[in-house]
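Readers outside the structure-tokenisation community will struggle with the description of the input data as it stands. For illustration, here is how one protein appears when written out as sequence plus structure tokens:
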Amino acid sequence: MATFKFNALDYSGQEIVDDIEASTKEEAVTKVRSLGYFPTKVQEHPPSLKVAKGQQPSSGLPRIGRGWKCPNPLSWFPKIELPTIDVNSVVIVGEFVIIVFLLILLLVKW
């Protein structure tokens, strides 16, 4: 038997969302009506891809797709500590380069 998810309305007009087991979609609709509901939508659940606790998937590798989360791709690479740059040292070096450049220009003109 398959599991069907259904949306239905009861006599007061409230929406009911639940699951029911049946062989076919028509049988699921009949069962929902026998409960006293007016079915508005009936869909078959896809087969569950859950793995029992403590077991591994059959291939041994995590699958990407329905029911399996993709591991974080950043975890595939090692973490690298980048050196921090002191802003004050950059300004000092930049000023030094400008002063040297201006001195060279003055020497070339003389």
The chain has a mean pLDDT of 76. Strands lie at 2-9, 15-22, 38-44. The first helix runs from residue 25 to 34. The longest strand covers residues 2-9.
